[in-house]
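Aim 2, interim progress: modelling of the hypoxanthine-bound target.
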Amino acid sequence: MWENVQQTVEFIKSKIDINPEYGVILGSGLGGFTDDIEIEYTLPYRKIPNFPTSTVEGHKGALVFGSIGGKKVVAMAGRFHFYEGYAMQDVTFPVRVMKHLGVKTLIVSNASGGVNENYKVGDIVIIYDHINMMPEHPLRGKNDERFGPRFVNMGEPYSRKLIAKGKTVAADLGIEVKDGIYLGLQGPTFETLAEYRMVKILGADCVGMSTVPEVIVARHMEMDVFGVSVITDIGHEDSIAEVNHEEVLQAAAKAEPKVRALIREFIGR
Ligand code: HPA
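Predicted structure of the complex, ligand included:
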């Protein structure tokens, strides 16, 4: 893994001379964020050695390099999900590459189903903690100390400082945000009513099929993480019938301008 990461980083550096400070992972329906980047270079995943290739619709499948408000960024347009069949090491490989390109702060976004009674479709949630219920762990296996320690402290998976900053930025922009705990499940099925109820009983506010592995690997390498989730459906008997991929993409697209503005300003400051 270490050698693969170095090889990929060298390849990228041979294409573009950039030291991104911020890494951004764009979730379902949020791909338009790349329009906010003064793009210097776009690298399709299929051209990057050791990168898996993205299969889900609504995702573009490229690393986008450039700047926002004078800050250097690299964005993942399209992420890899465990449910697509990738190993967890592949799902999280781009995060390792970002770290070794110089990224200090990782911004993750996703679409999720809300189980908190105060949530409604279109809400923007700043993730302050997560529950990992994925069936595989990205750090399972021999640990390479060059990346990070065997046993990783997860007391602050999402940086408190960045959460505070995110809330300030949102308030300044007049964007309403909530905060919440994200529970990660494998998917690709949406939850049954009983499972949504379980998610709530377990103490989470929303549930999705991504993010948790990437955040774990980011913390393994001591990157600071800021997470944002868009509530695209509500896990409740009155609304569960609506949940499908189209619905999720549409709801995410509606919230996209606000999420984009939030992340743009977050990086610029
Ligand atoms: N469950 C899981 N993943 C999701 C959901 C959901 O309700 N909505 C968007 N992604």
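The two ends are 34 Å apart (CA to CA). The longest strand covers residues 224-234.
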